[in-house]
Design a protein that fits this description.
The structure holds two protein chains of two kinds. Chain A contains twelve helices and nine strands. Chain A is an alpha/beta fold. Chain A has a single domain, classed as TIM Barrel (Alpha-Beta Barrel), CATH 3.20.20. Chain B starts with 15 loop residues before the first strand and ends in a 5-residue tail after the last helix. Chain B contains 16 helices and 14 strands. The chains are: A alpha/beta, B alpha/beta. Chains A and B meet through helix 5 and strand 6 of A and strand 2, helix 1, helix 8, strand 11 and strand 12 of B. Chain B: It is an enzyme of class 4 (lyase). Chain B: It catalyses: (1S,2R)-1-C-(indol-3-yl)glycerol 3-phosphate + L-serine = D-glyceraldehyde 3-phosphate + L-tryptophan + H2O.
């Protein structure tokens, strides 16, 4: 039996329906909230939809990002150094929502900052701020009671990660409470390192489609507009994170200041990725 | 507080000790974690596995090590009768090897061909490198660069044993960062790699598995105390970082109501100075989720993990094994603490009165013994787990004493 979305009427579901109607895949962009400072981060966030991001993953910085490679580790530390917190991340989402009512925002991070905030208060605050979904790396289905089920009850999607190690036997369990879309982590590894082959991605997406009616986004290791386009041919969305975060890091000078034009440069790169994704099935 | 019928039945099938423990890992690792759990369960039921482990602990590690009556120290403190469980006499000089023997046998049984581990003080790294040499398996040890700087002798030992020591520069370059990096390696090399976690923490089944492999400590104490004194000990004392030597000593006695137990955390420059100055997760932290389990953690208001401090590189982990968190909450074990200075004083006292240079980790336990023993009657039998020897620490102790080596 294929899994379906328990939160069928959501900003995420509407966005994927619109993409389907357009006959194209979406671009999901990741930035870390507050990297390198709250103002620049907000400017990048606010500029993402106009440059072609269809969905936004906003990283909640954590001191110990166990599943992330050097680029996102460094971005988390920059954000924390600039004073970023869960509360300020939610404020960023509120700021974004003043100008954009349609682009889904998915918070991505690790469980402990949410645990420290308190699951129920966090979910209420996140929903109120305009958060649509959560991706929490260290919560596998075995720990669904911690956050996934309360999130679904609060009307916040819980986007599950599936990986090359998720086998057929495990798939129904992994799919059971997932909502919004399924995020296929295309390599066994950490963010921003190796890239999977197109054949491997094709096969994995086909396998996932046998188990779910939800959209499938593919991420980890997509660094260029061409790679994003390749993924966009077979998947419902391509996720780019480390490459964008690295562009942002390139705009930081030796003393930690942000060089002029950095926001434009990052958004320009997102525009190139979006062009790649949009041309993929042309 | 309600008394439980048993304190030894945990964890449940999902790896929980009360609210603590669990399996908070990325999906990539989850199938492997389940595989480790299944393989471990089967191994424990296989007499051949148990037999090989016992044989190696005897012939290679040198077990049983003595339960030694510390007569001069007892006289000097003038109270309880103090025994040392001499884990520092094990091959490689600490209790860590007990667990490494068990885990590498499991890795072989699972057909894994590459071993990774994290290390703080280097004791677990040395023990892992040792068993990898013994079983001819490639070995990568992750160690924070700060720890590398303060534990040079152990770094060299690991290299001599054929291990690759990878310096970890992220975070503050200590044990938690080394564990993050080991997890990143594991997630990238799931097919062929086994992660030998060094303490009774991490995702289920590690806390239970490490505890079981370390329980040889408490099992021997029980037998030896019976032989030497004809009864059970009255109290057990052990230092607690992640808490593997402590849980190994305590666990076999948890259901003996007359046996009192004390875990000693590292209070660094003093708990009152705040969480950047100590590494006492229970006494100065609160529950959170890190490295695969829910447990007491040093963290700020926002749930960001803080870097603990201790003079002892083996204790400055910002968490503690989940079973300890539970034993604290249910009130079965008392968790005390000792400062850097108290540990340094105990370190020197032990050297001069008993002719034993203890690890700085174990010196924290001894500091608690020094506080307690004088107030207790002479027939009170107190056991300290002397978890490791202090050769590795002489450079940092010399530095603190203002001596140039």
């Amino acid at each position: 039996m294929k899994s379906v979305d328990v939160l069928a009427d959501s900003r995420i579901a509407r966005r994927f329906a619109a993409l389907k109607a357009e006959g194209r895949a979406g671009l999901v962009t990741f930035i870390t909230a507050g990297d390198p400072d709250p103002a620049v981060s907000q400017a990048v966030l606010n500029g993402l939809p106009a440059t072609g991001a269809d969905l936004i993953e906003l990283g909640m910085p954590f001191t110990d990002p166990m599943a992330d490679g050097p680029a996102i580790q460094a971005s988390s530390l920059r954000a924390l150094k600039a004073g970023m917190t869960v509360r300020k991340t939610l404020e960023m989402v509120r700021g974004f929502r003043k100008q954009d009512a349609d682009t889904p925002i998915i918070l991505m991070g690790y469980f402990n900052p949410i645990h420290a905030y308190g699951v129920e208060p966090f979910l209420a605050a996140a929903r109120e701020a305009g958060v649509d979904g959560l991706i929490v790396v260290d919560l596998p289905p075995e720990e669904d009671e911690e956050l996934c089920i309360p999130a679904l009850q609060a009307g916040v999607s819980f986007v599950r990660l599936t990986t090359p190690t998720t086998d057929e036997a495990r798939m129904p369990m992994v799919m059971r409470n997932t909502s919004g879309f399924v995020y296929y982590v295309s390599i066994a590894g950490i963010t921003g390192t190796a890239s999977a082959s197109n054949t491997a991605i094709d096969a994995a997406v086909a396998q996932l489609k046998r188990h779910t009616d939800l959209p499938v986004a593919v991420g980890f290791g997509i660094k260029t507009p061409d790679q994003a386009a390749e993924v966009a041919r077979v998947a419902d969305a391509a996720v780019v994170g480390s490459a964008i975060v690295t562009r942002l890091a390139d705009g930081i000078d030796a003393s930690g200041g942000v060089k002029p034009g950095t926001v434009e440069d990052v958004l320009g790169f997102v525009g190139e990725l979006a062009a790649g994704v949009r041309a993929a099935r042309g | 507080m309600t008394k439980l019928n048993t304190y030894r039945s945990g964890p449940d099938e999902r790896g929980h000790f009360g609210i603590f423990g669990g399996r908070f890992v990325a999906e990539t690792l989850m199938p492997l974690i389940l595989e480790v759990e299944k393989a471990y369960r089967e191994a424990r039921a296989d007499p051949a596995f148990e037999g090989e482990m016992r044989q190696q602990l005897k012939q290679y590690v040198g077990r049983p090590n003595p339960l030694y009556y510390a007569e001069r120290l007892t006289e000097q403190l003038g109270g309880a009768k103090i025994y040392f469980k001499r884990e520092e006499l094990n091959h490689t000089g600490a209790h860590k090897i007990n667990n490494c023997i068990g885990q590498i046998l499991l890795a072989r049984r699972m057909g894994k061909t590459r071993i990774i581990a994290e290390t703080g003080a280097g004791q677990h790294g040395v023990a892992t490198a040792t068993v990898c040499a013994l079983y001819n398996m490639p070995c990568v040890i992750y160690m924070g660069e700060t720890d590398i700087a303060r534990q040079q002798p152990n770094v060299f030992r690991m290299k001599l044993l054929g291990a690759e020591v990878r310096p970890v520069t992220s975070g503050s370059g200590t044990l938690k960062d080394a564990m993050n990096e080991a997890l990143r390696d594991w997630v990238t090399n799931v097919a062929d790699t086994f992660y030998i976690i060094g303490t009774a923490a991490g995702p289920h089944p590690y806390p239970a598995m490490v505890r079981d492999f370390q329980s040889v400590i408490g099992d021997e104490v029980r037998t030896q105390m019976q032989e030497q004194e004809g009864r059970l000990p009255d109290s057990l004392v052990a230092c607690v970082g992640g808490g593997s030597n402590a849980i190994g000593l305590f666990h076999p006695f948890l259901d003996e109501p007359t046996v009192q137990m004390v875990g000693v955390e590292a209070a660094g420059r003093g708990i009152e100075k705040g969480p950047l100055d100590h590494a006492a997760s229970i006494n100065g932290g609160r529950p959170g989720v890190l490295h695969g389990n829910r447990t007491y953690l040093l963290q700020d208001e926002d749930g960001q993990i803080l870097e603990g401090h201790s003079i002892s590189a083996g204790l400055d982990y910002p968490g503690i094994g989940p079973e300890h968190s539970w034993l604290h909450d249910v009130g079965r074990v008392e968790y005390a603490y000792a400062t850097d200075q108290e540990a340094l004083d105990a370190f020197q006292l032990c050297a001069r009165t008993e002719g034993i240079i203890p690890a700085l980790e174990s010196a924290h336990g001894l500091a608690e013994v020094i506080k307690r023993a004088p107030k207790l009657p002479k027939d009170h039998l107190m056991v300290l787990c002397l978890s490791g020897r202090g050769d590795k620490d002489i450079f940092s102790v010399a530095k603190h004493l203002g001596v140039e080596l």
